[in-house]
């Protein structure tokens, strides 16, 4: 297919990362034109509801643990040996191979068709490190999707650039990468908070995940209302961006974006604020973000939020159906295997009885 996409994901494995990754994996299972070539786990901002092994649990639940490689990402910002983010020492102890620029370049280089996309669900440190290790990696990446930036009054709530503005400046000023960046800033991602009517809609779509009795159909999601309520699904626009590209029946999300030249201030070598010092913008709109011909970093400022939320609920439901089908197939196959073993053993015992 012409709209095939190959994806590598860097994340910190918190709740909203898990929600996005399991829906992407469901798409990977159900559609031939999406390929997830690997997932890396990097440092994050807090311990709150974070389980780096959740990614492995999701792969095991979908029974594709041998099809998608998991890697250890980075455990600190570019210029700080002081481990920023309380997940940093946990990342250091993960029993996965470390991702390197050469490894990722080889993975993309082996692919002969499709659009190659790097999705960063956390800070930009990992990608910055990878392209410093292997500058030629940049030539094999068509789009770099990141959840970062703040361009309005919510500037102090932005975290993915504040944790490592040096990495952000490196990526956004790189002469090759700056025209491949698609950025979803905080003002866009914060619209997808699981609360009030959206939380009710989510319950209607997948009620078995959220029963107050604690009943859980499968291990893909937490069951507690208290855990999911008010979680912001920051990665949802990135998921929608990929979903609309691979699905011919996707809805129009009315992407509005501006092309920027971006510079972020750095307060000291270890942290910074996501302030824009220089902007040259070109306002435009697009049906499919992954198809745009960029002349600068594309910063999304608007989209059809209601339609995107409906699609997200549908994708979660699709992930549930996928898991249920796979689980039933596994159960059925093992019952048949057990029946065959019992039958074979009975025949063998019958043969021994007749001989002796």
UniProtKB/TrEMBL annotation:
Pfam families: IU_nuc_hydro. Signal peptide: none annotated. The keyword Glycosyltransferase does not apply. GO terms for molecular function: purine nucleosidase activity. Keywords: Glycosidase, Hydrolase. GO terms for cellular component: cytosol. GO terms for biological process: purine nucleoside catabolic process. Residues 7-204 form the Inosine/uridine-preferring nucleoside hydrolase domain. Belongs to the IUNH family. This is Inosine/uridine-preferring nucleoside hydrolase domain-containing protein.
């Amino acid at each position: 297919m012409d709209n095939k996409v190959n994806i590598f994901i860097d994340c910190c494995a918190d709740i909203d990362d898990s929600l996005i990754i399991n829906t992407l994996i469901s798409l990977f299972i159900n559609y031939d034109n999406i390929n997830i070539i690997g997932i890396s786990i990097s440092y994050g901002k807090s311990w709150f509801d974070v389980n780096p092994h959740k990614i492995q649990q999701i792969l095991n639940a979908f029974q594709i643990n041998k099809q998608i490689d998991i890697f250890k990402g980075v455990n600190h910002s570019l210029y700080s040996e002081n481990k920023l983010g309380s997940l940093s020492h946990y990342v250091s102890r993960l029993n996965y191979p470390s991702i390197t620029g050469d490894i990722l370049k080889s993975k993309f280089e082996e692919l002969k068709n499709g659009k190659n996309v790097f999705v960063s669900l956390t800070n930009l440190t990992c990608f910055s490190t990878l392209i410093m290790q292997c500058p030629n990696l940049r030539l094999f990446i068509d789009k770099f999707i990141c959840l970062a930036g703040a361009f309005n009054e919510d500037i102090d709530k932005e975290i993915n650039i504040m944790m490592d503005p040096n990495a952000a400046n490196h990526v956004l000023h790189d002469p090759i990468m700056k025209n491949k960046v698609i950025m979803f800033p905080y003002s866009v991602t914060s619209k997808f908070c699981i609360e009030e009517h959206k939380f009710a809609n989510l319950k209607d779509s997948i009620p078995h995940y959220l029963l107050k009795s604690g009943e859980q159909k499968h291990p893909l999601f937490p069951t507690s209302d208290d855990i999911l309520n008010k979680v912001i699904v920051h990665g949802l626009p990135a998921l929608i961006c990929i979903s609309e590209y691979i699905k011919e029946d996707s809805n129009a999300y009315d992407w509005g974006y501006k092309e920027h030249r971006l510079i972020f201030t750095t307060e000291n070598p270890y942290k910074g604020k996501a302030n824009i010092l220089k902007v040259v913008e070109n306002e435009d709109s697009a049906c499919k973000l992954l198809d745009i011909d960029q002349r600068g970093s594309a910063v999304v400022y608007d989209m059809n939020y209601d339609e995107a939320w409906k699609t997200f609920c549908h994708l979660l439901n699709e992930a549930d159906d996928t898991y249920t089908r796979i689980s039933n197939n596994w159960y059925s196959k093992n019952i048949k295997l057990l029946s065959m073993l019992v039958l074979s053993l009975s025949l063998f015992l019958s043969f021994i009885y007749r001989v002796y």
